[in-house]
C-alpha cells in the first residue's frame, strides 16, 4: 500500500487532538495563559523540524497501538497531564473524527484539503507566536511538495491505506450521533444527495456513438440519488479558501463531548483477533517508535509553571468509571512484542526515554502504554 | 425512456456473514461457481486476511497486506490467486495447497513508490496474467496440473500501476483480441494472447483512473474514478458509449456473458445493472439501464454476478462483514 500515508495520518489526527484539547481546556476553565502555553508547547513539539523529517520519510503505516504511543508523548509535552481513561477517550475521538473525514471525502485528493483545514486551524491557535508559525508553514510547504503533484489514482491508494487503518472501528461519538452523521450502530451515514465532486457528472445520461464517433442516441435513467453540480474547487495553496468543510473544528462551541464505548459484537470480535494474533511487524514498530519519539524534543517545563490534569469526561467519577468499564477488546495495550535480543536497541531506547523524562509532577504510576522499556523487561 | 419495461426486479436474499470485514480495495469480491455441486464460493480481502466463504467455507490468514483475491478458471484446473505487497501466491481453488509463489522485486523500486501486485485474469485457457504497481503485467504459463508454473512473458506497455485485467468472456470478432489491461492513469490496452502476446490497441486516458474493466464480444466496458462507464470497440479502440453512471468512484464491474448484463458498484452506495446489446442493423453498441440497488451507508468495493445469465448478484462494501445477495424475481 502507499508509503506516503503517515504524514497525512499524523497531522490530521494531531489536528483533531488539538481541537479536542482546546475545547476541554475551555470547558474546564483552565486559565488562559496556561491553556495557551499547553497548546503552544504541543504544537511546537509536533512541528519540530527533526520530527517532521522522520515523519515524511517513505514508510508503511504502523498499528493504531504504536501510533497511540506517539500521541501519548505529544499530549504530555507540556504542563498538562491526562489519565489513561482520558487519553483513551481522546484517541477514540481523534480517530473516529478522521475516519469520518476520510470516508466522506468526495474525491481522493480532498484528503489533502482536509489536512490543510487542520493546519489552517493550527495556525490560528498560535497566531500570537510567530516562531512556531514559521515551523507550521514549513510543514505546509513540505506537504505541497510531497503531495501537490500526485495523481488521483495515487491519492486513492493513500485513501485506501487510511481506510484499512481505520477498518472495524465503530465507536459511537455523541457529537456525530446528535448531528446524525453516525448511526446508532456506529456506522457513518453516507448521503446519496448533495454535490458531485469536480470532474464527475450528475448520474443519469447515456450517450451512444457510431463507429465514426458521432453521437447517435441519447437516453436517461433515474435513481433514488439526488445530486447537484459541484461548487468551485478548494485551494491547494499555502493560503486560500478550502471550500470543503471536512477537517474544520466541529468543537468550536463549548459543549461536552461524549463517546460511547459499546460497539457491535462483530466489531469487538474482529478487534479481539487483532490483539491476540502475534504481530509480525512488532520489531519494525519498535524501531519506528524509537526514531519518531527520538525526534520529539520534549521541553522540561519552567519552575514557576505548575502542572494540571485535564479530564476528557465531565467529572472525575465518570473518568474512573470509564477506566474500569472499558471493554478489553478496545484497550490500547502497547504492542505485544517478543523481547528483542539486541542489547544495543535496549540501550538506545533507554537513552531516548531518559531524554523524554519530563517533570516530577508526573504521577508515580507509569501507564503500561508509556514505558516501552519496562514492557520489554516484563516479557 | 420506459424503465418499467426492462426493470425486472431483484429481491434481496439472505446475506453471507464474513469472519472479517471487507477492505476498500478495487474489485474486492470474487465468485467461483461450481454448478455440478450447486455451490458458490465467495472471496473478499480484509487487509491481512482472505475471507473465503461457502456452506463449509473458512478464512485463510496471511501476514502481509493483501490487495486482491481472485479465482482463475482454466480448462483443467481452478487456481486461487492472491496479490499483495510481497508477491503473488497461487493456491489450489480451495486454498489448501500453495502451488506457486512469486516474490516482488522490492529492492529495485525507490522507497517512495508503493510496490504491489493488482489485477488478475486467466487468458486463453493457459495463462494467468497479474498486474504490477510498476505498470508491468506478468504472464504466467500454467500447466494442466502440478507446480511447474513459469513466467512466460512480461508485458511492458503501461507506465502507471495496473488496476484491473480482464479476459474475453464471449466470442470476439476478428482483430478484437482477448485480453484488456487497465491502469491508474486510465489507459487501456487490448491484447491478443498466446505464446507471445501482441498489443492490438492502446486507448488513451482522458484524465481519470480506470479501476475496473471487462471484455465481452469485442466490447471493452470500463469503470472510472469519475463515476463514468465507457464502452469501447476492442478491435478499433473507438468510444461507443459513455454513461454518467455513478456520483463517486467506481470500484467494481462484472458482466454476465450469456445475456450481456453489466453490473457496476461504486463508492456512492449504488449498484446498477445495465444491458449491453448490439443493434444488428446499424452494428451500433447499445446500453440501457435495467435496475439499481442502494446499499445504505456503504461504499461498495466488490460486486459480482453469481451466474452467467446474471439472474443473481453479490455485493460487499468497506467495513462490511457480510456479502449481500440479490436474485431476480
UniProtKB/TrEMBL annotation, chain A:
A UniProt-annotated Pfam family: Oscp1
Top-level taxon of the source organism: Eukaryota
Gene name as annotated: OSCP1
InterPro entries recorded: OSCP1
Annotated organism of origin: Apteryx mantelli (North Island brown kiwi)
Protein name: Protein OSCP1
Organism lineage: Eukaryota, Metazoa, Chordata, Craniata, Vertebrata
Automatic annotation (TrEMBL), chain B:
UniProt WD repeat ranges: 243-284
Pfam families in the record: WDR54 (PF21031)
Residues annotated as domain WD repeat-containing protein 54 beta-propeller: 9-329
Keyword Membrane: no
Keyword Cell inner membrane carried by entry: no
PROSITE patterns: WD_REPEATS_2, WD_REPEATS_REGION
Annotated protein name in UniProt: WD repeat-containing protein 54 isoform X2
Primary gene name: WDR54
Amino acid at each position: 500500500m502507499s508509503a506516503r500515508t503517515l504524514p497525512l495520518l499524523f497531522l490530521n489526527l494531531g489536528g483533531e487532538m488539538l481541537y479536542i484539547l482546546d475545547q476541554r481546556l475551555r470547558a474546564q476553565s483552565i486559565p488562559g495563559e496556561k491553556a495557551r502555553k499547553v497548546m503552544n508547547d504541543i504544537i511546537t513539539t509536533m512541528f519540530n523540524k527533526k520530527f517532521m523529517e522522520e515523519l515524511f520519510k517513505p514508510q508503511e503505516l504502523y498499528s493504531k497501538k504504536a501510533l497511540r504511543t506517539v500521541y501519548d508523548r505529544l499530549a504530555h509535552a507540556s504542563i498538562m497531564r491526562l489519565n489513561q481513561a482520558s487519553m483513551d477517550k481522546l484517541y477514540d475521538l481523534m480517530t473516529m473524527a478522521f475516519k469520518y473525514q476520510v470516508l466522506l471525502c468526495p474525491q481522493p485528493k480532498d484528503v489533502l484539503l482536509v489536512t490543510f483545514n487542520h493546519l489552517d486551524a493550527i495556525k490560528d491557535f498560535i497566531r500570537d507566536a510567530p516562531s512556531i508559525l514559521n515551523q507550521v508553514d514549513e510543514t505546509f510547504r513540505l506537504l505541497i511538495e510531497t503531495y501537490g503533484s500526485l495523481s488521483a489514482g495515487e491519492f486513492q491508494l493513500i485513501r485506501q491505506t487510511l481506510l484499512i487503518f481505520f477498518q472495524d472501528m465503530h465507536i459511537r461519538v455523541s457529537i456525530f450521533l446528535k448531528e446524525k452523521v453516525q448511526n446508532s450502530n456506529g456506522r457513518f451515514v453516507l448521503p446519496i444527495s448533495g454535490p458531485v465532486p469536480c470532474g464527475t457528472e450528475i448520474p443519469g445520461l447515456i450517450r451512444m456513438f457510431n463507429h465514426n464517433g458521432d453521437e447517435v442516441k441519447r437516453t436517461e435513467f433515474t435513481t433514488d440519488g439526488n445530486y447537484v453540480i459541484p461548487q468551485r474547487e478548494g485551494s491547494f495553496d499555502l493560503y486560500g479558501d478550502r471550500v470543503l468543510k471536512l477537517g474544520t473544528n466541529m468543537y468550536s462551541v463549548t459543549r461536552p463531548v461524549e463517546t460511547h464505548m459499546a460497539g457491535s459484537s462483530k466489531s469487538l470480535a474482529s478487534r479481539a483477533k487483532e490483539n491476540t494474533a502475534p504481530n509480525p511487524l512488532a520489531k519494525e514498530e519498535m524501531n519506528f517508535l524509537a526514531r519518531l519519539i527520538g525526534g520529539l524534543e520534549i521541553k522540561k517545563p519552567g519552575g514557576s509553571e505548575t502542572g494540571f490534569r485535564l479530564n476528557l469526561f465531565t467529572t472525575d467519577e465518570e473518568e474512573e468509571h470509564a477506566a474500569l468499564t472499558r471493554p478489553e477488546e478496545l484497550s490500547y495495550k502497547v504492542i505485544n512484542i517478543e523481547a528483542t535480543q539486541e542489547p544495543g536497541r535496549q540501550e538506545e531506547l533507554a537513552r531516548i526515554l531518559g531524554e523524554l523524562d519530563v517533570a516530577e509532577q508526573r504521577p508515580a504510576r507509569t501507564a503500561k502504554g508509556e514505558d516501552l522499556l519496562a514492557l520489554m523487561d516484563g516479557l | 425512456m420506459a424503465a418499467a419495461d426492462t426493470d425486472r426486479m431483484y429481491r434481496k436474499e439472505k446475506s453471507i456473514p464474513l469472519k472479517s470485514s471487507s477492505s476498500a480495495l478495487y474489485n474486492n469480491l470474487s465468485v467461483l461457481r461450481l454448478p455440478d455441486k450447486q455451490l458458490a464460493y465467495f472471496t473478499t480481502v480484509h487487509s491481512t486476511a482472505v475471507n473465503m466463504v461457502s456452506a463449509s467455507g473458512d478464512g485463510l490468514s496471511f501476514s502481509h497486506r493483501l490487495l486482491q483475491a481472485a479465482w482463475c478458471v482454466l480448462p483443467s484446473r481452478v487456481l486461487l490467486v492472491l496479490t499483495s505487497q510481497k508477491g503473488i501466491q497461487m493456491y489450489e481453488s480451495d486454498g489448501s495447497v500453495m502451488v506457486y509463489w512469486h516474490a516482488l522485486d522490492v529492492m529495485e523500486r525507490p522507497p517512495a513508490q508503493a510496490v504491489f501486485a493488482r489485477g488478475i485474469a486467466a487468458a486463453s485457457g493457459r495463462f494467468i496474467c497479474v498486474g504490477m504497481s510498476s505498470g508491468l503485467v506478468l504472464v504466467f504459463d500454467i500447466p494442466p496440473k502440478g507446480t511447474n508454473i513459469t513466467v512466460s512473458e512480461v508485458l511492458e506497455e503501461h507506465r502507471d500501476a495496473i488496476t484491473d485485467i480482464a479476459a474475453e468472456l464471449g466470442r470476439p470478432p476478428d482483430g478484437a483480441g482477448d485480453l484488456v489491461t487497465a491502469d491508474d492513469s486510465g489507459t487501456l490496452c487490448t491484447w491478443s494472447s498466446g505464446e507471445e502476446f501482441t498489443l492490438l490497441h492502446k486507448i488513451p486516458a482522458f484524465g481519470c483512473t480506470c479501476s475496473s474493466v471487462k471484455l465481452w464480444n469485442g466490447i471493452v466496458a470500463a469503470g472510472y474514478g469519475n463515476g463514468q462507464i465507457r464502452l469501447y470497440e476492442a478491435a478499433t479502440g473507438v468510444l461507443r458509449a459513455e454513461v454518467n453512471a455513478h456520483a463517486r468512484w467506481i470500484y467494481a464491474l462484472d458482466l454476465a456473458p450469456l445475456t450481456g448484463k453489466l453490473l457496476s458498484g461504486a463508492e456512492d452506495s449504488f449498484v446498477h445493472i445495465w444491458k449491453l446489446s448490439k443493434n444488428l442493423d446499424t452494428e451500433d453498441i447499445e446500453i440501457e439501464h435495467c435496475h439499481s440497488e442502494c446499499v445504505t451507508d456503504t461504499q461498495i468495493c466488490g460486486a459480482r454476478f453469481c451466474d452467467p445469465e446474471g439472474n443473481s448478484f453479490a455485493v460487499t462494501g468497506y467495513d462490511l462483514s457480510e456479502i449481500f445477495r440479490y436474485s431476480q424475481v
